[in-house]
């Protein structure tokens, strides 16, 4: 198992994502994943990443102002050009940082119609073609309605249907076990069945989204072994909120028999 720190959730001891690169390295991480680094230039982020000496695994699509609840426009009719601009900007950052994966966020919507699904799929087709030319992977992630009410994509079956229809090696599923448990449960069978479509995995305990060894619904010693048994050997993003100090909370990694 290879673990990367999610800098939107971990190392919030610093308010600066630039400083979190160094904190992740200090804690022993070899790799990180991030949201889109709003407020920082490409050069600033690249320098922070390179000075820390860590690998960038994934970056989220430029989404709009997250503090205002803006989580992308991929499923919003009439905003196709904004989506294309956001994709281009994110690709620029991904290439500069050496990230191979881009999480294409769908957006939050008050009311969902068939037009939203058509727009979403058309934008993903466009993205898959662009990402193929760039040698990058796009991933889509169902997000549960408890954590992010009104998020457009919260159905694993629909996500897989779209991935199968687009049929591109450059578009896969981001399997966050935290969201899978909230939405579906039945983790053993669902992980096995979804694995052929998976391009990235993330973990956190349910329901409080803390470290995998904290009290909650998921037995992560079993789940991590199950992921391995199902053939997953790529990076696992630690998209959890540390219950206390980020570095001290990493004791579970060794206790579970792994290394950073």
Automatic annotation (TrEMBL):
<dbReference type="GO" id="GO:0008903">
    <property type="term" value="F:hydroxypyruvate isomerase activity"/>
</dbReference>
<dbReference type="InterPro" id="IPR013022">
    <property type="entry name" value="Xyl_isomerase-like_TIM-brl"/>
</dbReference>
<comment type="similarity">
    <text>Belongs to the hyi family.</text>
</comment>
<dbReference type="GO" id="GO:0046487">
    <property type="term" value="P:glyoxylate metabolic process"/>
</dbReference>
<dbReference type="InterPro" id="IPR036237">
    <property type="entry name" value="Xyl_isomerase-like_sf"/>
</dbReference>
<dbReference type="Pfam" id="PF01261">
    <property type="entry name" value="AP_endonuc_2"/>
</dbReference>
<feature type="active site" description="Proton donor/acceptor">
    <location>
        <position position="141"/>
    </location>
</feature>
<dbReference type="InterPro" id="IPR026040">
    <property type="entry name" value="HyI-like"/>
</dbReference>
<comment type="function">
    <text>Catalyzes the reversible isomerization between hydroxypyruvate and 2-hydroxy-3-oxopropanoate (also termed tartronate semialdehyde).</text>
</comment>
<protein>
    <recommendedName>
        <fullName>Putative hydroxypyruvate isomerase</fullName>
        <ecNumber>5.3.1.22</ecNumber>
    </recommendedName>
</protein>
<dbReference type="InterPro" id="IPR050417">
    <property type="entry name" value="Sugar_Epim/Isomerase"/>
</dbReference>
<feature type="domain" description="Xylose isomerase-like TIM barrel">
    <location>
        <begin position="22"/>
        <end position="255"/>
    </location>
</feature>
<feature type="active site" description="Proton donor/acceptor">
    <location>
        <position position="239"/>
    </location>
</feature>
<keyword id="KW-0413">Isomerase</keyword>
């Amino acid at each position: 198992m290879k673990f990367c720190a999610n800098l939107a959730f971990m190392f919030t001891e610093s308010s600066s994502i630039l400083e979190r690169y160094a904190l992740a390295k200090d804690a022993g991480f070899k790799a990180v994943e991030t949201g889109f680094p709003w407020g920082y230039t490409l050069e600033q982020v690249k320098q922070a990443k390179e000075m820390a000496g860590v690998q960038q695994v994934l970056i989220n699509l430029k989404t709009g102002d997250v503090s205002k609840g803006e989580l992308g426009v991929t499923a919003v009719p009439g905003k196709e050009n904004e989506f294309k601009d956001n994709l281009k900007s994110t690709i620029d950052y991904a290439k500069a940082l050496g990230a191979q994966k881009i999480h294409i966020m769908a957006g939050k919507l008050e009311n969902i119609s068939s037009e939203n699904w058509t727009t979403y799929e058309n934008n993903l087709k466009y993205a898959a073609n662009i990402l193929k030319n760039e040698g990058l992977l796009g991933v889509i992630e169902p997000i549960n309605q408890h954590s992010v009410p009104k998020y457009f994509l919260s159905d694993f079956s629909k996500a897989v249907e779209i991935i199968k229809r687009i049929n591109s090696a450059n578009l896969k599923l981001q399997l966050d076990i935290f969201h899978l448990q909230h939405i579906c449960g039945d983790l053993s069978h669902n992980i096995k069945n979804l694995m052929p479509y998976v391009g990235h995995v993330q973990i956190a305990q349910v329901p409080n989204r803390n470290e995998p060894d904290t009290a909650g619904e998921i037995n992560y010693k079993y789940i991590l072994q199950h992921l391995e048994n199902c053939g997953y050997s790529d990076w696992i993003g630690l998209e959890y909120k540390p219950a206390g100090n980020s570095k001290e909370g990493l004791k579970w990694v060794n206790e579970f028999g792994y290394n950073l």
